[in-house]
Amino acid sequence: MSDLEENFKSLPFEEKIKIMDSMTEKQKKDGIEQVKYICKNYCGKCPSYEGTGETNLAFCSIGKSSLIKEEKGCLCDQCPITRQMSLRWVNYCTQGSALELSKAGK
Fold it and tell me: Is the pTM of this model over 0.90?
């Protein structure tokens, strides 16, 4: 692992977001696609997600679901994105994106 990767890994979420703001639109789009691919094994299998008709994923990035109304369990803390991005919240599908939660001081 390079020094840059090691440094990024140790940063808090808010610092990682600042770095990501400097990415090109293509880099951001590619990153979101990677997150969605990973999230189908977590969001897509979550007790709160299953059976709701929801098709979106990566609620930590996109925010609340308009279809998920009840928290029946949460797999967010098991998702690798949680570690990679130093996320400290759960239930993004009902609570909002990590950025929204951070700005709200939660």
Answer: no
